[in-house]
Design goal:
The complex is a heterodimer of chains A (215) and B (334). Chain A has eight helices and no strands. By secondary structure, chain A is mostly helical. Chain B has one domain: Arp2/3 complex 21 kDa subunit ARPC3 (Orthogonal Bundle), CATH 1.10.1760. Mean pLDDT of chain B is 76; it is low at 216-223, 254-283 and 328-334. Classes of the chains: A mainly alpha (215), B mainly alpha (334). Chains A and B meet through α2, α4, α5, α7 and α8 of A and α1, α2, β1, α4 and α7 of B. Chain A: It holds the Pfam family CbiQ.
């Protein structure tokens, strides 16, 4: 499984990728907070920020198609939440709340999408650590990120095995049961793997303290 | 289900972030106290597993839509409450950092709803129920109930946070009803998946479950007494189910009448509605707690009325049941 299938454009070399990581995080944070505080009547401000994000996306070389696909997945989710507001008054009032939520939500989403696609996860982790993330949390996160791909591969192997052995279409309950069995077996295998990895770490002198080359 | 930015106001986000940071920090300290070097690999691997497990799609009756595992209660049941809270937090962080799923400012809110209320609170429910049902089947049942409640509690938290955010022009009781209906269905899926997965684990490697006896041959334990339906246990479980139904469903039932009142207000004859609401103590199935205007009080009072009514009925049933006990006469004979 390729390393960057989750955030495909994060390892580019544009001007956005080369900006200091902490600066990028703080920039996006500042933009989101501005978007949250500026009332929707001042929509030109939001427009300017959207244009800035769009420009940044272009500079980073993130294709429009990727952006549209991600927005297509994001929109139904926030729409479902936003539509609940007018729905709660029987579709009489609350449309402006919905519009506000949609405007701010989409803008903030694009900002974070830019951030995660110009910063690889390991560098993001270092930056977060410098911004005060506890070390143990950072260590567990790094471990988790390392093994996500291994567990994904394991899951894919198990699914392939199931496909090779399943010839007929399953009913709904059977599908749920086999899916849950898949996750259950994956859980057992992952815990076994964690124990093996832990043993290997201990064999190499791990004492619970995380040491990196620069600390 | 992740809350994006722009829905909850920044002030509420900040408050929730502080609360979450406190809870996560506390979990970290608890973990450091109890666990050895195993914490990092076990917790990290569990996070990776929950992340991967969420990619397994569970088909629904409506074809294009499918559900997936959320995993908060599952992680807590396997690794214990503190590591479970951390696992959910980390999964949320990775989802934010890789997919931009869930907002940046709203991360604290998400962690609070799903990690603190969902995983820690869910574990509390699970542990409480398991005391009554220590058998493997009881473990699964407790986890199923806890998983359902954790989803419902998260949606309730969302409604509260939305209310605190100071939006105008919406009806909170109805929003609450909408969210609760929707999430009680999602919770049903989560409960089923959690139950199925846990039954697989208990079948294959029961020692993996937190607090379960080790499979190590060196530490043999006397076999656990399997669960028996003593009258007291049956009564307590029945009462809890009844209370849950009353507490959750009672406000809904009156949600419709709220709509009616809104219409009545518009038409201008609200003078006829609630002419004299405090004649009886439980008039209109509400305990008179405060003004009718305050939605929260009115909903709360309906809930309390429902729970009170259930308790009363239960007490009567217990008293009646005493006389009809089958063993009573046989006991005299011996």
């Amino acid at each position: 499984m390729p390393r960057d299938f989750l955030d495909p454009y994060s390892r580019g070399n544009s001007i956005c990728h080369r900006l200091p990581d902490r600066l990028k995080i703080l920039l996006v944070l500042a933009m989101i907070i501005t978007a949250l505080f500026v009332p929707p009547e001042n929509w030109p401000v939001h427009g300017c920020m959207a244009a800035a994000v769009f420009l940044a996306m272009t500079l980073a070389g993130i294709p429009l198609r990727y952006l549209l696909v991600r927005l297509m997945f994001f929109f139904p989710m926030i729409m479902g939440l936003a539509i609940a507001v007018p729905a709660s008054t029987g579709f009489t009032k609350g449309w402006d709340v919905m519009a506000t939520v949609l405007l701010r939500g989409t803008l903030s989403f694009m900002g974070v999408l830019w951030l995660v696609n110009v910063t690889p996860f390991d560098r993001l982790l270092v930056a977060l650590r410098q911004l005060g993330l506890p070390q143990m949390l950072a260590a567990i996160l790094a471990f988790m990120y390392r093994y996500i791909f291994v567990v994904f591969d394991e899951l894919e192997r198990m699914r392939e095995g199931r496909r090779a052995r399943t010839f007929s279409k399953q009913g709904l309950l059977a599908a749920w049961k086999t899916n849950a069995q898949l996750i259950g077996m994956l859980l057992i295998r992952s815990m076994n793997r964690a124990e093996r990895v832990h043993g290997a770490m201990c064999a190499r002198g791990f004492d619970g303290e995380i040491r990196t080359l620069d600390s | 289900m992740h809350i994006a930015d722009g829905i909850i106001s920044p002030e509420v986000c900040a408050g929730m972030a502080v609360a979450s940071a406190g809870a996560v920090g506390f979990s970290l300290r608890q973990l450091k106290k109890t666990e050895t070097t195993k914490t990092i690999p076990l917790t990290g691997m569990m996070g990776a597993l929950v992340f991967a497990g969420q990619m397994v799609n569970f088909p629904l009756v409506v074809a294009p839509v499918s559900g997936h595992l959320l995993g908060g209660v599952l992680a807590s049941v396997i690794l214990g409450p503190w590591a479970g809270c951390l696992v959910v937090t980390l999964v949320l962080v990775v989802q934010w950092a890789l997919f931009a799923d869930g907002g940046m400012v709203a991360l604290g809110v998400n962690v609070f709803n799903m990690g603190v209320v969902g995983a820690l609170g869910g574990y509390a429910v699970y542990a409480g129920l398991r005391r009554w049902m220590p058998s493997p089947r009881g473990t699964i049942t407790s986890a199923i109930i806890a998983a359902w409640l954790s989803v419902l509690a998260a949606s309730t938290m969302f409604c509260l946070e939305f209310a605190l955010s100071g939006h105008r022009d919406y009806s909170l009781p109805n929003l609450f009803a909408l969210m609760t209906t929707f999430h009680s269905l999602i919770g049903l899926g989560e409960a089923l998946i959690t139950g199925f997965v846990l039954s697989v684990v208990l079948d294959q490697r029961p020692d993996l479950v937190y607090g379960q006896p080790s499979l190590d041959i060196m530490e043999t334990e006397p076999p656990r007494r399997s669960w028996q339906a003593t009258p007291l246990r049956t009564a307590v479980i029945g009462l809890m189910i009844a209370l849950a139904v009353a507490g959750f469903l009672a406000p809904f039932a009156s949600g419709y009448s709220d709509g009616l009142e809104a219409v009545a207000e518009k038409m201008g004859f609200d003078a006829q509605v609630d002419a004299d609401p405090q004649v009886l103590v439980l008039d209109e199935y509400q305990v008179p707690l405060g003004s009718e205007e305050s939605w929260f009080m009115s909903k709360l009072s309906v809930s309390i009325a429902g729970i009170g009514g259930t308790l009363a009925v239960f007490a009567i049933a217990l008293l009646l049941g005493r006389g009809l006990k089958p063993g009573a006469e046989a006991g005299h004979a011996t």
